[in-house]
Amino acid sequence: MFDLVIEMDVIDNVIACYEIKDEINEKETIFVAFQRDGKLVNEMTFTNNWKDEEIIEFVNEVYEIKSSKRRYKHGKIECIEALRECLSKEEFKGFCKGNVIKYLWRCDYKGGKEDLEKARDYLDYLLEKEIIK
């Protein structure tokens, strides 16, 4: 089905760009899948008409958008998942709510858009696991 599968957990965005360019040089059109943890994150058809800058921009966007929550991974365990396992449901809920408040509070003075994205990530953690109903 796919001509190339990019495993985002294994290779970085720079290597992904090189692999796409190599495939395009061999074929005129390629269908590429971007996966993380074995799950499809994004897909795109690239042709030899794509400029290098366009490939780089697209790949960087996929990696940035889909990796915003992957901040503190050591080995196979993401820090947030370890916290979720160590804390009670109420403690984890408080941790996430506290971080939402912190990042919203400081966004105008410190981290700007990045802080807003972090606040959204913590809201997503609350919503994904049905911690708040």
Overview of the molecule:
The chain is elongated and about 55 Å long. It folds into two domains: 4-66, no CATH class; 74-128. The protein has helices at 13-26, 52-66, 79-86, 89-106, 113-128, and strands spanning 4-7, 29-36, 39-47, 73-74, 77-78. It is 53% helix and 19% strand. 14% of the residues are buried. It is of the alpha+beta class and 133 residues long.
What is the averaged pLDDT score?
A: 82
Uncertain spans = none
Strand and helix order: EHEEHEEHHH
Extended strand count: 5
Radius of gyration: 18 Å
Summarize the structure.
The chain is built from five helices and five strands; from the N terminus they run E-H-E-E-H-E-E-H-H-H. By secondary structure, the chain is α+β, with helices and mostly antiparallel strands. Strands 1-2-3 form a three-stranded mixed beta sheet, with helices on one face. Strands 4-5 form a two-stranded antiparallel sheet.
Labels describing this entry:
53% helix, 133 residues, single chain, 3-stranded mixed beta sheet, 5 strands, two-stranded antiparallel sheet
What topology emerges from the helices and strands here?
Layout: E1 4-7, H1 13-26, E2 29-36, E3 39-47, H2 52-66, E4 73-74, E5 77-78, H3 79-86, H4 89-106, H5 113-128
Parallel strand pairs: 1-2
Antiparallel strand pairs: 2-3, 4-5
